[in-house]
Amino acid sequence: MHTVIKDAKTRMDKSLEALRNDLAKIRSGKATTALLDGIKVESYGSLVPLKQVGNVSVLDSHTLSITPWEKPMTAVIEKAIMEANLGLNPVNDGTNLKIPVPAPTEERRRELVKLIKKYGEEIKIAVRNIRRDANDQLKKEEKEKKMSEDQLADAEDEVQKITNEHTKLIDEILKHKEEEIMRV
After folding, report:
1. CATH number assigned to the domain with residue range 33-100, chosen from the 4 options 3.30.70.141, 3.90.480.20, 3.30.1360.40, 1.10.357.10
2. Angle, nearest 10°, between helix axes 106-143 and 2-24?
């Protein structure tokens, strides 16, 4: 019984972490290194994450900086950022790249808010599916006489409590991100 509840909580925590990762990649007008996390760069014949070919840092709230480990990689990194279609235009000074992060328009901010709400709803569905799986597993254990009806009810209440906590956390994360996006 406790392993089912613990497993459900772990899976719900992973869903929350996935939401945080997805939201970190959404551009809110503030420079963050997470904007470039999905970019792969060709290095020695294979595609590698950008962080493996240079130092990515935040210069100020609207500018990112990339210092490649090897000077010839500057042009390759610039091309990869342009092809990533993030709406970012790197400025190449020969050895470093500076990437201004423009503030999104009002319309784009509203689109981003819709997008994060969609992500949030998908994660809430995932959490509810985890709850359903846990409850099914608990009912199966009760049928196999591994627990009593009272223990089943208590376990289902515990699973519901964990579900409610995670749903509340999802709402808080979304609210925070929405405020960040809508801030001009």
Report:
1. 3.30.1360.40
2. 170
